[in-house]
Amino acid sequence: MTDAIRVLYVEDHDSDARIIQYLLEGCVEENFSVEWVDTLAKAIAAIHDHPLDLIIADLGLPDGQGLSNVQRLHEAAPTTTIVVLTADDDGADAIESIRYGAQEYLSKQSLRRETLIRTIRHSLVRQERLMTAQAQAMTDALTGIGNRRAFEREMDRRLHDFRRSNVHFCLAIFDVDFFKKVNDAWGHDVGDNTLRVVGRTLVNELRATDLSSRLGGEEFAAILAGCRLEDACRVSNRIRGTISEQCRLQVKPEFSLTLSGGVAEVQVGDDLETLYNRADEALYSAKENGRNRCMVHDGKGIVPLESLTAADHRTPILHS
What is the pTM of this model? Predict the structure, then answer.
């Protein structure tokens, strides 16, 4: 027996809810597990409580009306398939609901089991293909981690959360020291393998809530969610050392590969460019001060990582 398709049905009319449950649970071709809630708030709570394969939602709810319901459900569950049901048969709403994140639109007036099941099947397949295409568009082809597009998208999301809810995060940028010498001495195959090890180790050293990405060439970034500057500095220095060790173990034992890093914490008024520039300035300072180290931009200037917690750590060694 195949795993059940986990369905959340959002509907405030008891009679309509019973009909949909009857149509789905009586299907012999598919196995559905249906949860019914009658408000948008309950639906969003259910989304946060457990994973879902499909959301079937009415456009008219006590606490939400129209296409805004689709938008809010899509924001809460961006990877979950959404099918809209409504009492109206409005083609304009059908198109708009898809633009807001739904895969399909069905009118209750002409609903039959075979129509509903076919729509669900097609919607699930389209959503899977969409998620695959989006993942590929956000993935660096060489290393398999996030690319610059994924980095920019996550930065926008984290900045939004910081502005709305004061959820702090830090940005760390890493650059492989003298990477050109790796290619010159060992060839581009070894150079590519080195970048793969850097990317793989970066992922392994981060939490599931963080994002690792390759920004281009030998430059990598880590977005550290819910992290303050001192913790981000310790994490970044550990990552730098672990990557050097793994390159020796996985690429060539004689490797003495090192990385430089720059770290900055989000501040009020930041956008992607200002936060990135502070971390990049710290990285540049690490390069200028001997490489194989992390430097920190504390918002006033750049300090070495080891002096961040010192009593005079607010005295910058290089002003931005």
Answer: 0.69
